[in-house]
Amino acid sequence: MFGRDQPIASRALTEEFRERLVQFRRQLHRRPELSLEEHETTKRIREALQSINANIVETDLETGVCALVSGRKPGPCIAIRADIDALPIVEETALPFASEVPNKMHACGHDFHTAAVLGALMLAMDVAASLESFPGSILFLFQPAEEIGQGASLVLQDGVLQRYGVQAILGEHNQPTLPTGVIGVREGPLMASVDEFSIVVKGIGGHAAIPDRTVDPILVASHIVAGLQHLVSRVVSPIGSVVVTVGSFHAGTANNIIPPQAVLEGTVRCLQPEYRDVAEDHLRSFVTQTAQAFRAHAEINYKRVLPAVVNDGELCELVRGVAGEVVGADNVVEAAPTMAGEDFSLYQEVLPGCFFFVGTGKPDGSSRAWHHPQFDVDESMLIKAASVFVRASVTWLHAHAPIAHEGD
Ligand code: NI
Asked: Which site in 3, 125, 264, 385 is 20 to 30 Å from 320, CA atoms measured?
């Protein structure tokens, strides 16, 4: 184990280190890149890693980078994950380091995550080089394409986690709804599963004034849209959390024509994994039978995109403890779950993981939400996030290292 005054703390307290992370985050912020296009971002991360002689781990990823920090003794491996991609949003922050790329913005703070994990890597290298060191190794993942839910799959397909024998994984997201200085941890479900659906309601077109000779798909689809909320309010327990949203409804060409079909597109989010099957089954049967009841026919395309982020109890306990050392126990809170999705969940399907929230919001609650054109983060939390990561990892490695024999 290590104490507060060991290298982790000493470097984390320097102004130079703080400034380095802030400048790195701002560099990334100026040059946002969309999912799977993060070539310049990848280059910048690689350069930063090379400048500190980090051990870059080669993978087949076209964008994104991995690096390994090993302690002085053999032992297990834990991963720390950042996401690096940005969004197709026009930035409206007026910050001096605002996006220089039209219609692209780090509006989810993945620039913050990347800089925080780089900071964790630098701190981990300090610890690894110190006498206190740690057993085993820490794999740092700078993952691409989180926003389109594909990056974690690519990392998993690459096999880098297996190659280094990763046994647990940590990740964080900035949280503008939590004030700066606060860290939110929650055991169990934290972020919802993400499913998508499209429904083609097929009727019989005709004259708007002679509806008896038609099967009106707009009317049928309207019943479907309204009725789907029955799933949320009357099928799922009021204690559970499920969202069904129809985000797009397209039909028709003119006021006096009943069209032959209507197309709905939407998303289903479930915080508790047990509702995922319930939601899909109910949606399928409700849509099919509603269409039948109105003499129409529905074709359903239902796609499961991401599972829920479900946090491991032991890792949450660990993160809560070290977060208390970093921000003070009073500033560690139970994180409120969110119905947004995160592809960190894919790692958690194969490994125990803890995904936590780092408060980066203004104390008065006026900070803009994720994906807002005026979204911003409080950079003072970069070091705190980095410190939590490295303290949690090092503590975990000590706890999971093989027991050393006398004289080892
Ligand atoms: Ni995000």
From this structure: 125
